[in-house]
Amino acid sequence: METVLLNNHMEIPIQGIGTKGLDDPDICEQVVLHSVMAGNRLIDTSPTFHNQDSIGLAISEMPISRSELFITSKIYPFCYKNNRVKRNIERSLKKLRTDYLDMVLIETPIVNGWQGAWKQLEGAVEEGLVKSIGVCNFLTRRSIDELCSLANIRPVVDQVECHPFLQQKHIQKKLNEENIQLEARYPLGRGNPLLLNNDVLMNIATSHHTTVQQIILKWHYQMGHISVVKSTNPDHIQRNLHIDHFSLTPADMLQIEALDASRKFYRAPEILQKLGYSLVR
């Protein structure tokens, strides 16, 4: 698996396993095992996915060393205050059966208190519980500027929804300026038929004798994005990982660039903002 060099000189795999929605413990365990044995090394988790016990069991059964894996967890807003960040990390470490996390991400800047949570994350790095820290859904230059101005440890990643219909060009430019890596959440647009059955993408896939999914993942690769992909299908997992048999031409890339419509398929951050997280805890 190819890697990307982060601004703290750690390497992160270019593609990883998304585990959101893997609610059945047995299925989750088998998907993670199969994905890693197929070549995946990045595992994207969160306590709110309610499956870290299953992921930890899978990790304990793998015939590879812990150092070969890159495990990410997240901090959601109900942990921003009252020094819950460290407690959240320690709980994840126990469930995942590991002594450290390779990366932890703060979920959103739309809820007050994220600044203090960032400082708690920096403390977790200093204690050796976490190696890298970053954010999710920081979607404006202002939020990135505020983050970078208060950070003693620079964020390495901003995980955002990104796919050909939502290319995040505005935030990509800012991240490039700050040497922060874009990590694509829902890189296949949550499998939405509007994206996967798009005529332009289907024509490009036909010309390369491959699938639309592989075309999209190759586009992410050539854009330099890290992709977090969820699939429970062993054949799809295998195909998603093996996209080195073709390259997109400059003309292909221009056609895909023209598909950008700022179209979101995931709207939870806005919904949670309206709720004010009053229902979370």
Question: What features would you describe in this structure?
Answer:
There is one protein chain. This protein is an alpha/beta fold and 281 residues long. It has one domain (3-275): TIM Barrel (Alpha-Beta Barrel), CATH 3.20.20.100. The protein contains 12 helices and 10 strands. The protein has helices spanning 25-38, 52-61, 84-96, 114-126, 141-150, 169-178, 193-196, 199-207, 212-223, 234-241, 250-257, 268-275, and strands at 3-5, 11-13, 15-18, 42-44, 70-75, 101-106, 130-136, 157-161, 181-185, 226-229. The strands form 2 sheets. Strands 3-4-5-6-7-8-9-10 form an 8-stranded parallel barrel, surrounded by 5 helices. Strands 1-2 form a two-stranded antiparallel sheet. Strand 1 (3-5) and strand 2 form a beta hairpin. Helix 1 (25-38) packs parallel to helix 10 (234-241) and helix 8 (199-207) crosses helix 9 (212-223). The protein is globular and about 55 Å long. The protein starts with a strand and ends in a 6-residue tail after the last helix. Mean pLDDT is 93; it is low at 273-281.
Keywords:
single chain; 281 residues; alpha/beta; TIM Barrel; 8-stranded parallel β-barrel; two-stranded antiparallel sheet; 12 helices; 10 strands; globular; disordered C terminus
Tally of DSSP β-strands: 10
- Architecture in CATH? Alpha-Beta Barrel
Order of SSEs, N→C? EEEHEHEHEHEHEHEHHHEHHH
Shape: globular
| Strand-pairing-aware structural class | alpha/beta
CATH topology: TIM Barrel
How many DSSP helices? 12
Determine the CATH superfamily.
Answer: NADP-dependent oxidoreductase domain
Neighbour order of strands in the largest sheet:
3-4-5-6-7-8-9-10
Task: Report the top-level CATH class.
Answer: Alpha Beta
Q: Describe the biggest sheet? A: 8 strands, parallel, barrel
pLDDT average, as an integer?
Answer: 93
Number of domains: 1
Rounded to the nearest angstrom, the distance between the terminal CA atoms is 39 Å
Low-confidence stretches: 273-281
